[in-house]
Amino acid sequence: MYCHTPVLHSVEGTLANVRHLGSNDHVQHYVADLLQHGSTQHVHIKTAYDPRAQNEIIKESRVWHDLGQRFPDHILTPLDTRLSYPDGTNLPCIVTPQLPRDLKDCYESRTYTPNDIAALLTHACEGIMKINDHGIVVRDIKPRNILVTDALEARLIDFGPSVQVGAKDVPHTSTDRYEPPEHERARLKKRNLVASPAEDVYSMAAVAKHLLCRDLTPDLQTMLRICMLENPQQRPAMQFLYETLNAYTAIQTKRIAA
């Protein structure tokens, strides 16, 4: 499932099991029509029934749709972000194609080479760099939020916590082992944060360190350590991490070809 937030409801389905998409008739009818006339037979729905959570979905759908239009090679572009129905019912949802795997699946299956993983990380990093340059901090970077196409390209999903660069009084997030240390400090001190791309740099470097742990070179270890410095103001820009991963992938490709 793409969504792990308790107040949100994620469902998936095909034409064969559209009746099991959820208890809401509007979702069932809408998705049945989408599947019948759309270009995909597998979709994923992210929706909410609590009014407060619905506002979060509306906000996320706007950010996600904008990023998907701007960066279709890096974002899993929503098929639709239906916010209302003919009878006046307001039930926002984000409908995306369902991809068969994410980066965590690729890592755990061990059918993908370290070079495959490195190439996917590089592609994801390039996408996050473009998002940051567009003025958005993703703030929820983890392997489950990096989907993988059949052509071995990365597609980013889930932009609920995403905010404008420099946004003030932003709550901390929880991305487990990939969470920047400033989030933990904010949680302990019960204060909020000013959104910074340095958060994404740390999280993306932490993901790379985890997924490439079997093949970390000394140079890559050093570069990732710089990106994961305790002080966010001392971390380099995302371009540094992208160039680091790109160079590592190129070196590994040459080594395999030799």
Query: What's the architecture of the largest domain in CATH terms?
Result: Orthogonal Bundle
Number of domains: 2
The share of residues in extended strands comes to: 5-15%
**Silhouette:** globular
Topology pattern, helix = H, strand = E: EHEHEEHHEEEEHHHH
Radius of gyration using CA atoms only: 19 Å
Distance between the termini: 40 Å
Question: How would you classify the helix and strand content by structural class?
Answer: mainly alpha
Strand order of the largest sheet: 1-2-3
CATH-assigned fold name of the largest domain: Transferase(Phosphotransferase), domain 1
CATH superfamily of the largest domain, by name, is Transferase(Phosphotransferase) domain 1
User: What's the number of helices?
Assistant: 8
Helix content: 40-55%
Largest sheet, if any? 3 strands, antiparallel
Q: How many distinct beta strands?
A: 8
Q: At the first level of CATH, what is the class of the largest domain?
A: Mainly Alpha
Average pLDDT metric:
83
Low-confidence stretches: 1-23
